[in-house]
């Protein structure tokens, strides 16, 4: 009744931004991401008959409140699926700055889903696991896979056709991502609250949703052709459209800091000087920069020298879920 799993976070090139069903976590648009090897969560789940409630430790600290409630809510789904009603001890180690726009919920829920289902004796396919993971946190359903993954929004209202699938083989393309860390502080508007406010109040939301199919088709062509310019241009424009929707919300909000804009300008300057690079930003101030391996030294140097940048972390394409032995859990 115990298992350990490791999952990596992912960065969306076509963003998931908006739900059509908040309870089941059904999105209004398909999204597409790269799984990154640089940031991961390792989670150990033990179902124990003697427990009277679930217990959750994150980086060795006992967690209560909203975060712990989300874990229990997810474990309830797993218990229902397995038909076994036993509480669990969950221990997670996060190698992601939590809640700073690094989608720690993506690696977190992917690792929790994999470890808990294995521990309870369910043997799920990737598709089943992705569908279940989605209900913990939407973006997490893409972290089941390595490389490029697309979350198909599905059409059905029960969510049975809403899960992620791989786009190409994991080693299709050695594309790199530099994560530019500006602030590890907790963000003010969570992605969940931010997208809800956008859906409910932003007049730009309709335009956002309508623009997705064309972006998706082009970026998939670009990935297949390994056309860096095409992929980068679409990813950057898609990110800007997502962030534009927040300015139209009521009350309006933005995830950007002044340094966020400086990093964006630096990326543009790099391009102007002949170094291909494109940015994307999630629901936080930090910027992720897409680049090719041959430019790694220049990219790192340029980003690190920006005032207000705390750290630059380089990632390659990461792998999907892996299961570890209990002895690997430190
Ligand atoms: C901006 O997956 O964190 O990172 O489904 O409510 O848990 P919930 O939201 P979450 O949203 C991620 C939004 C995003 C874009 C993306 O990853 O596609």
UniProtKB/TrEMBL annotation:
The keyword ATP-binding applies. Residues 7-164 form the Diphosphomevalonate decarboxylase-like N-terminal domain. The keyword Flavoprotein does not apply. Pfam families: MDD_C, MVD-like_N. Residues 180-304 form the Mvd1 C-terminal domain. Keywords: ATP-binding, Lipid biosynthesis, Lipid metabolism, Lyase, Nucleotide-binding. Belongs to the diphosphomevalonate decarboxylase family. This is diphosphomevalonate decarboxylase.
